[in-house]
Specification:
single chain; 205 residues; alpha/beta; Helicase, Ruva Protein, domain 3; Dna Topoisomerase Vi A Subunit, Chain: A, domain 2; 2 domains; two-stranded antiparallel sheet; 9 helices; 44% helix; 13% strand; elongated; binds zinc ion; TOPRIM_dom; DNA_Rcmb_RecR; zinc
Amino acid sequence: MEFSSKLLEEAVNEMSQLPGIGRRTALRLVLHLLKQPESQTVALSKALLDLKTEVKFCKNCHNISDTELCEICANASRNSEIVCVVEDIRDVMAIENTSQYRGLYHVLGGKINPMEGIGPSQLTIKSLVEKAKSGKIDEIIFALSSTLEGDTTNFYIFKQLEGLDIKTSTIARGISVGDELEFADEVTLGRSITNRIPFESSLRN
Ligand SMILES: [Zn+2]
C-alpha cells in the first residue's frame, strides 16, 4: 500500500496492529475518523488512554473493575463458596448473561500455552490456590474452553488442589470441543453450568 502522506501511513500502521484489522480496514477507519470532528478522535484517544492507565483488577477475582473489589465480589447476595475459573472477562460476561450462576469468579488472564511462552506463573493460578487453601471455598468450577490449552490449564490447577477438601467440577458442555466459551449461546451455557459434572469424571473421556 502506497501512501501519499506519512501521517496517514503511521495512523494506518497503528490501527492495523489491532487483532482482526487488516490494512484496508485500518485505512477505512482512519479516513472515517479524519472526516469526523476532531472532538471524536480526542474522545476515542482519551477513552483508550484512560482505560490503559486507570484500569484496575479486582483484588479478589482479578476481573477488570473500576473499584478495588468488583461488583460481583462485593455483592453480598452471591455465594462466595463457589468459584468459577474462567480465562477472561468475556467469559464472565457470557456466564453472567445466562443468569444461572450466583457464585464468584476467578479470572486467570489466559491459559497455559507453552507454544506462546505462557506458563502458570503468568496467570493468576497462585492466588486461586491460596484462595482454595483459605478454607472458605466449597467448590471450584472449571469453565475454560475445551481446547488443548484449556484442558492443560484445568489439569494443572486440579493437581495443585490435590489434598484440599474442595469439590471440583467442570461445566457440562453441550458445546462441541474447541468452541470458545464466549460464543456459546446463553441457554446452552446456562444449562451446562447448572448440570456441571465432577471434574474427575471429565478426565475419563
Ligand atoms: Zn471480583
